[in-house]
Amino acid sequence: MPPIFKTNRRLALSSIxxxxxxxxxxxxxxxxxxxxxxxxRIVVPFAPGGTTDILARAIAPELTRVFGQPFIVDNRAGxxxxxxxxxxxxxxxxxxxxxxxxxxxxxxxxxxxxxxxxDPQKDFAPVTLxxxxxxxxxxxxxxxxxxxxxxxxxxxxxxxxHPGQFSMASSGNGTSIHLAGELxxxxxxxxxxxxxxxxxxxxxxxxxxxxxxVMFDNLPSAMPQIKGGKLKAFAVTSxxxxxxxxxxxxxxxxxxLKGFEASSWFGxxxxxxxxxxxxxxxxQEVAKALATPAIKEKMLAQGAIPSGNTxxxxxxxxxxxxxxxALVVKASGxxxx
Length: 337
Known about the structure:
The protein is of the alpha/beta class and 337 residues long. It is 50% helix and 18% strand.
């Protein structure tokens, strides 16, 4: 074959090969950039008004702006967050359904509930930790004033002298709000009737209204009522004082309860099988949003500490939290059938 034809043949084959590579590469690029082509749902497994809801609604507009599709908050309350979490666990792993998970749904409930409708590790792809927050022990301010209760020690003294008089509200069975109260009961030896709600929002309404007496609520959702004088705050449940309300002691300090700690955290998760590139894109944009001065300062002012860690770091954290809370559940004696 003449050299010119060999050269042309080689060029033709090279062109075909390049075209084939381009044909293969274009769909891969499209696959990475196509998502999202429709609205994305962020399931909040509690009623509106609580910290889980507050944080979801803080990041949803940022994700909407970046990705050009609505990120819609969908409240699905019930069973200490298990109803909403289970809905996400059984959703397609296509990036269009996310969960604002909590220490309850992905740390506590596995040990607290005798039967779980989902596996908090196998059925989810962790995206990122959004924020960690302390809980705060609060009481109806009018009732606290009437009974002369101004501190943790006052509360314990009165509760021991009047067993069974106090009711303790929570955002649901298995939440850190519930477990913080159970741990407090077990370490102080007092009894309070636990009244679970379908979220922190409705529980706070009844606490302010005087239908229930005390709550170990997440600091961000309780803070407006504390500052408004409707709730009397005694202490935070974290190991250290909160920078948002540094005047409040920890429960360990105020009640001389060594080792007392029952804080909360909130993070985004997707159904297992969600494409890693989609998970990574969401994590990166959430991390960017949490680092902006406006959102960061707002969260810190509310008592929340923003994170934005990687999916791998979040997965390791969930594993550690499950082990940690198994010990707390066992020590408190709490169980939900």
